């Protein structure tokens, strides 16, 4: 039996916006009635069929790394940020500040990836100082090597004026956004446009994982002391 590859997705956003509620619904197809505050990080897993229905179909584990949003832990939580293959940014539609604050979360991951790149990493989210500006543009600022993002707006059932939501963050990042009520299964039901967006996001994260593995392999091949090419591994067979 072949092992199933894992894809790591960070779930980020301010405390109380609904990250744990969203993850539970996405992973178990049922709402979580009374979530506790997340301390540190909690991980949920689900199976996903990459490119379902095509010749490239393959099963992966999607790991949701649900990071507690409390301000108190902001200095320690970056240990969970690497490696990652995609990020879900969650905000509360009844709290505009939580959407604006998503910039801070992107900067946090970006900083961590840069630190790792400076040491030995092969993947990063480039830091950009204009992340808060109106002119922010994903393609020019993040480049094509950026991890994929997905924005989730929660508590749709509590919003009076649904048309007032502008979806700024998603358009700044050039990614999809899903607005939903995490306590109702129908928002992520199979066949809905939300389910299609989620599936597309998982596929992009899987592709990022493959790209990083390939880059990492190539980089090790070019490394003169790479264990991959070392004589220890490639010494002629002697009987
Ligand atoms: N009505 C409604 N309530 C929600 C929704 N999402 C979350 N909640 C509620 O909001 C509260 C906080 O939700 P959590 O999922 O714990 O929030 P969190 O982002 O994980 O918070 P931290 O773990 O502190 O970072 C809970 O009472 C949830 O039931 C939603 O879409 N609709
Ligand atoms: Mg939580």
UniProtKB/TrEMBL annotation:
What Pfam family does this protein match (any one)? Roc
Q: Which GO terms describe its molecular function?
A: GTP binding
* Sorted UniProt keywords: GTP-binding, Nucleotide-binding
Give the highest taxon in the source lineage: Eukaryota
InterPro entries xref list: P-loop_NTPase
Report the leader peptide range.
none
| Name this protein carries in UniProt | Rab-like protein 3
């Amino acid at each position: 039996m072949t092992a199933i590859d894992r894809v790591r997705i960070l779930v980020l956003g301010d405390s109380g916006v609904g990250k744990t509620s969203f993850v539970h619904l996405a992973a178990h197809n049922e709402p979580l009635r009374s979530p506790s505050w997340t301390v540190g990080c909690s991980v949920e897993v689900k199976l996903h069929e990459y490119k379902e229905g095509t010749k490239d179909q393959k099963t992966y584990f999607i790991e949701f790394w649900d990071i507690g949003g409390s301000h108190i832990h902001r200095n320690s939580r970056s240990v969970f940020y690497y490696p990652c293959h995609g990020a879900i940014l969650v905000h509360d539609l009844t709290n505009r500040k939580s959407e604006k604050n998503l910039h801070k979360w992107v900067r946090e991951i970006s900083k961590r990836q840069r630190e790792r790149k400076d040491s030995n990493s092969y993947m990063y989210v480039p830091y950009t100082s204009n992340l808060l500006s109106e002119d922010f543009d994903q393609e020019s600022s993040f480049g094509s090597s950026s991890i994929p993002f997905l924005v989730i707006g929660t508590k749709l059932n509590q919003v009076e004026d649904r048309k007032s939501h502008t979806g700024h963050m998603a358009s700044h990042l050039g990614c999809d956004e899903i607005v939903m009520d995490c306590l109702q299964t129908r928002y992520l039901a199979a066949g809905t446009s939300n389910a299609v967006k989620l599936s597309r996001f998982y596929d992009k994260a899987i592709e990022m994982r493959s790209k990083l593995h390939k880059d990492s392999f190539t980089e090790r091949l070019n490394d003169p002391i790479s264990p991959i090419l070392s004589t220890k591994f490639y010494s002629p067979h002697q009987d």
